[in-house]
Queue: 3 jobs
Job 1
Amino acid sequence: MALKFFNSLSRTLQDFVPLDPAGQNVGMYCCGPTVYDFAHIGNWRTFVFGDLVRRTLEFNGNKVQHVMNITDVDDKIIRRVRETNTSLREFTILYEAAFFEDLKTLNCLLPHTTPRATEHIPDIIALIAKLIERGLAYKAPDGSVYFSIENYRKSGRQYGQLVKLNFDEMRVGERVRSDEYEKESVADFALWKTRIPEDGNVFWSSPWGEGRPGWHIECSAMSMKLLGTSFDLHLGGEDLMFPHHEDEIAQSEGACVQADGNRFVKYWLHGAHLLVESRKMSKSLGNFFTLRELLAKGFTGREIRYLLLTAHYRETFNFTLDGLQGARVALLRIDECLNKLRGLAGGAASQTDPEWISRFSLALEDDLNISGAWAAVFDWVRQTNRKLAENSLDASSASVALATWNKMDSVLGVGSPAEQEVPIEILNLVEARQAARKAKDFKQADSLRDELKAKGWVIEDTPKGARAKKI
Ligand SMILES: [Zn+2]
């Protein structure tokens, strides 16, 4: 079976056929964070979904070029810069650093390129100039440059490909300066916003005077600069479909001629919303969580990642604290099985079990059917546990089983607890061994080391002292 994705552009399930037929140069652009605050769990669902898509593509032998932008200038950021009385860079760098830290906590692969909007102002200006040259953008009396939906439609193109729009409601000449607006208020949108007093020191020079870019143009400029005028995949949360992604299509296809009759983006993938404790997340309901708040409650990045990965990306998912407890139990089951295998295995195996890999892979190929993939994982755990209980696994089959798990985990990314997640029981054993060594009781120290090994841990002596490491 071939890898299939639900393409929001065609609203159908399609075989994934990359622009490079060998799949060795798959371009994937994910809309990144707006660095004005800590990302919340709803944002993280989208980023973990992006990570799943990339890992699945790589699992299937593709070579991916993963780009994620950092929106470090927009309406919300400027408001916060003003409120906190800092400079743009001083303000955004804090949340950008936090974002990358959180990304690592959730074991998401680092995108290959993470361009900042503020470092691509010349590319943005060049793209706007092209749109003006083609008669698709104009400078309005307020000094800002807007995209002309009317002219775009007159040029024979369709505005409103990802969402249905009612143009009868649209009033000609209406413009929207704000980056975020509703489907009902479709209007010419801002590409370059002329400087206003509220912008403070946040502005750049342009052929249209001092100002700053709109949000939508930034993604068109950076994605095409880094991946070409036509690339394979564009991902984001479903809330970005309109106006953000719709505007990206209009800007990119309006300004550039895509080669070979290709589109700006071949496959648009959108992740669904997240509810928390059955309700829309909101600060007033007390169900609004940043990743950091969940970590402070004692949950780990691994448990949160697991829970976010249990639902299909196109389904609204109800994230609950009970669900996180369930994630802990599920991961424990996997860990126990892996620890036993590690105790038994004789070296690393290059071979995996084709039957399990195929079952796991078939589920993912079906538009990332993650429940099917987890069902394969837990059936594998059950069967492996049975064999372990029967003592019917020798060292080499245990190694094959571990290699099989590692292959599946190259997609799931929940395999090994991070270093800081050493269980307390293991930490106690490490401490006891250190004490035994200090007391020169080497017999006891060796027996504790063996006990640790049986549980799947080794002790590494580092300049900072002894620490436990998963085998
Ligand atoms: Zn974007």
Job 2
Amino acid sequence: MSCTFDLKHYRELLESAGGYTWATFDREPRAGDLFLRHDVDLSLDAALVMARLENELGARATYFLMTESRFYNLGSYDGRDAIAELRELGHAVGLHAVYPNAQLDARFDPVIAWHNPDPEYMSAPIDGAVNVMSPPWFTPGHYRSDSNQHWREGCPHDELAKGSFAWLQLLVHPEIWVYEGTTMRETMERMLEAKRNELVEALIDDRIDMT
Ligand SMILES: [Zn+2]
Ligand SMILES: [Zn+2]
């Protein structure tokens, strides 16, 4: 099995976790829990592709969406449709917040993941919401992240299959699996091509003459 950042291996990763319980952040961790977390930094389309695959495999995740993204607009038709589809697929939706704005509204469950947090506030409690990077949800030895196509402590598929973690919070960024490339740059170029095509369609929808 090759640990490449693509949907084939993402499927294998989910299948390897079959012995775990899909947990969301509405309660504290228990033995056998897998908190599958997605910080959606760049692309709602990538999030939806991942969400459909998870639903097909019986997996449940929490999608953290931004209200202040430079890359997508949660208030647009596409943004509203994306939230509705994530909910229909059975996933939880939290806020991927830009510090210090922890403004929750009815679109979100009361759970927050800071975007690119500084160590000073990363694990601090948040009034009225779960901070996913605070204990007990964030505990050394119970956390893995795929940031920038790099698993600091290795791809967890093997340990998941063996049940090595008593429980785990697993952070996966959809864009880096859905858009394939051998480097982060290649992956981002793929995403940009897809976004260009999306924007051309949006222009046509906006009655711009693109003939
Ligand atoms: Zn792997
Ligand atoms: Zn982020």
Job 3
Amino acid sequence: MTMMRAWAVGTPGRIDTRPLVALDCEVPTPGTGQLRLRVRACGVCRTDLHLAEGDLAPRGDLVIPGHEIVGLVDELGPGASRFACGDRVGAAWLAHTCGTCRFCTSGRENLCLDPTFTGWDVDGGYAQFVVVDEAFVYSLPESFDDVAVAPLLCAGIIGYRALRRTELPRGGRLGIYGFGGSAHLTAQVAIAEGARVHVMTRSPESRELALSLGASSVGDTNDAPPELLDGAILFAPVGDIVPVALASLDRGGVLAVAGIYLSDIPSLNYDRHLFQERTLRSVTANTRQDGQDFLEIAARIGITSTVHQYAFREADQALSDLAHERFSGAAVIVDFESD
Ligand SMILES: [Zn+2]
Ligand SMILES: [Zn+2]
């Protein structure tokens, strides 16, 4: 087989204009230190939507999105030795870092000055095959099947980093704003670690999911949680929520913004939103260590992914449904072999 099916971003635009195009292209060949994966499942991340809609500028023509990739190693490039053909691995957002800049050499490769990202700079997993750098893929816990583990690879890892960025104390009070793929995984880690979790989301379906996972309370986006918060994570890409969340922090509390994209933040009032040493932080990508740590914890606590499956030929529908909030939890593309 020398040709494969893939979805690529054509002309970025609102999802209803169908910015994703289906195409036939050549099966890629792995270079030095690379692996080719036969894709088994690929999670659908909000970042894919931002890319398709042009919120994130495309970094090339017809880039193939998708960075929650579960695949079987299909061919080893020259020098690749970490895995064998047939091994199941996961490829995520971080495709490559330079390894030499001041951030890479100080344990902060998420801030690398010259990184590449899967499904943005290099082709991702909305395709039957993908080529990845072997140093940047993860071994996957056997306790998860392909579909269950896919959303862990971005939604899970980034949410986990966001949780750590809140520096939530043991048994602390955590607010979660927006409750989709990433939030529903992060909430499970926080709850397993003893946090009381309050979820603010406009979706009644997501509120129900939050309660079923053990949230202490649920409310609408602009509702105040029933107690002040030690930490909060903003998952919804809505800058208007920033002051709302800051106002719900206790003294010394931290708000972490988890997304790669956020609409503008309205002006803040120093006294109401920041004074008393409240902190507003962003979260930028993740290190490989974050990924490993999270996958270990996820396996240990038996995290459950609420997943909506889409056949490969329906990938654009999955993005459209994400845009229109037609499901709660995470979407995963499967069934890559059928037309
Ligand atoms: Zn670097
Ligand atoms: Zn993502």
